Amino acid sequence: MFENIKRRLAHYLLSKKYLSKNGKHLQFNKIISNSRSFLIILPEEINELNSSLDLVKYLLIHKKSITIFMNEKNYNSFPAKDKFNFITYGINDITKLNLPSKNLVNKLRGKNYDIVIDLNRKENTFFSAVANIVGSNVRISFKKDFSESYYNLLFKNNSPEAELAFRNFLEVVRMF
After folding, report:
1. What's the pLDDT tens digit per position in 113-151?
2. DSSP secondary structure code for residue 100 in this structure
3. Residue 109: closest CA among 97, 101, 117
4. Which long-range contacts (CB under 8 A, 24 or more apart) does 167-172 make?
5. C-beta of residue 55 within 8 angstroms of C-beta of residue 168
6. Full set of structural domains in the chain with CATH
7. 3-class DSSP state for residue 1?
8. pTM listed for this prediction
9. By the number of CB atoms within 10 A of the CB, which of 30, 116, 139, 174 ranks highest?
């Protein structure tokens, strides 16, 4: 009960403080191929993180500028660190309401990307806030609770298997 109230309060604060009020209509025709800079928010769970790397490889092959947002505990296990920019977060960067700390918000505020892709399949207020703090007109994620307010393009996840879900997600991204 208390967790549900805390989550609703966090979503309320997120919508008031960080939600971008973007009223213009977007054309998704060739949105991925015409974009240059990407912020990829990787999942926290290591098995999901490993399954999601095909999308990162796809963008790297197409010579996109990629910044990876990930937990600092997973940073050492990430391959090819020299090909990406990184923004890491730790336990101190997450508040009790599961929102980003002021230090992390200040670090993210000046960042601008053509597209933000949140690869978390489960609802998490922290990652939704991060996706909306950085400057970007296009935000892509999996469909989850409360996601309609925070993302422009949502992918419905029908698979309980992480590898299959990310493979399907990559196929959808290739269409754009």
Report:
1. 999 999 999 989 999 999 999 999 899 999 988 888 889
2. B
3. 101
4. 167/54, 169/55, 169/119, 169/142, 170/54, 170/55, 170/58
5. no
6. 2-17+30-175 (3.40.50.2000)
7. coil
8. 0.89
9. 116
